[in-house]
Write a structure and sequence with these properties.
With about 400 residues, the protein is mainly beta. Helices cover about 5% and strands about 40% of the residues.
């Protein structure tokens, strides 16, 4: 027998607030808690709407070292705050389905936002297949032996092999994680939650920053979240000091950032009209402005940053003018760590222009997984129905 990469240590009940049940206590004796109401408190590791957009299928973990599935047949509700990096207190009923322990019929109370994720349990393939760790946030490293897209639903199964066996990694299409960088034979580091399907363990990542190929990508690639100083503006409104805030979220610094301003917005394109401040900004940090005449988009590339976990970098724009249409439009933001490559962050900030609710098709083409439910677009039909494909009865 060889030692696993990191020995699991579960501290049942340590630090649990009064009236709160440690998740490990539930997971270690599920039968005693079935159909019972409990209160738990922890940090969301996979947010609602990430691996399933039609219902809540999320995960939360506390400092007992184990996590649990948060489940509801209802669509994700933003008011519930079931978002990555959010600490919640939840009261609900414990159920079990297909080997997955769930908290259902829950209510939530926001404790804090922008919290660090639990340290992933670094394990070998043996522990990564041990169903006793169902719901736990873990890390596994191995060589990719197969990449198998599901022809029916575009999800992807990845098989990793280490010196003790194999483990299945399941990448749901709803996450929007691109696997273009990945090849059979690569050494892949994956962080994700252990899920169970048909009595088999599978590691489920929810975000692009949780899959890293050393030498090709970096942990910080696609990491972070962003928000803007104004969420609503008027049409053709001249904006001064319009600021994009980018927050570091992983334990590896972001070194490069690309911000694509909303399509059809006008800007001077002058580097003098962009300024940097806040955490992650140093003497070697620089910003370069680029105009894309085809897409009608202005881009700013920030280089030489050191955006650490918890830092907030502010990128401010002057002489910026909003677009002419009443729409809801996005700022597409990419991040990368040292030696990595720029990847889209998972949740781009949106700005509503004149209270508009429809979207540009351009934004949908950037990352369709950032949109859920029914949306409204407007355009001109270029090829009519029935011209390309005809179906005979």
């Amino acid at each position: 027998l060889s030692a696993i990469a990191g020995s699991p240590v579960v501290k049942v009940g340590e630090g649990a607030p009064a009236g709160v049940t440690p998740i490990a206590q539930i997971q270690d004796n599920v039968g005693a808690f079935l159909n019972q109401e409990v209160t738990i408190e922890g940090v969301i590791t996979i947010g609602a709407g990430i691996i399933n957009t039609g219902r809540v299928d999320a995960y939360i973990q506390d400092n007992s070292g184990k996590g649990i599935n948060v489940f509801s047949f209802d669509p994700p509700n933003p008011a519930a705050n079931i978002n990555r990096f959010t600490r919640l207190r939840m009261t609900g009923t414990i159920t079990e389905f297909g080997g997955v322990t769930e908290i259902t019929e829950y209510t939530t109370s926001l404790v804090a936002e922008n919290q660090p994720l639990p340290t992933p349990l670094f394990v070998s393939s043996v522990i990564a297949n041990d169903l006793a760790f169902e719901g736990t946030y873990m890390k596994v490293v191995g060589v990719v032996t197969s990449i198998d897209p599901d022809a029916d639903d575009n999800d992807t199964n990845i098989t990793l092999r280490d010196d003790q066996g194999t483990v299945l990694v399941r990448v749901w299409k709803e996450t929007g994680i691109s696997l273009d960088f990945l090849s059979v034979g690569d050494t892949l580091s994956v962080q994700g939650v252990m899920d169970v399907f048909s009595s088999q363990a599978q590691i489920v990542p929810g975000y692009a920053d949780e899959l890293v190929v050393p030498g090709k990508t970096a942990r910080a690639d696609g990491s972070g979240f962003a928000f803007t100083s104004a969420a609503v503006v008027d049409t053709t409104d001249t904006l001064s000091n319009f600021t994009v805030f980018i927050v570091g979220t992983v334990d590896e610094p972001v070194s490069d950032i690309r911000i694509d301003l909303p399509v059809r917005w006008q800007w001077s394109g002058d580097a003098a009209d962009v300024s940097l401040s806040g955490g992650g900004f140093g003497e070697s940090t620089s910003a370069e402005a680029v105009a894309d005449p085809i897409d009608e988009v202005y881009r700013v590339q920030v280089s030489g940053a050191t955006l650490e976990q918890g830092d907030t970098l502010a990128v401010s724009f002057n002489n910026l003018r909003s677009g002419p249409d009443p729409v809801r439009t996005a700022l597409w933001i990419r991040t990368a760590g040292a030696g990595g490559r720029l990847r889209l962050i998972g949740d781009p900030p949106f700005v509503s222009v004149a209270g508009g609710s429809r979207y540009y098709i351009y934004d949908l083409q950037q990352n369709s997984s950032a949109f859920s439910g029914t949306i409204t677009v407007r355009g001109i039909t270029t090829i009519g129905a029935g011209l390309l494909r005809k179906v005979s009865s």
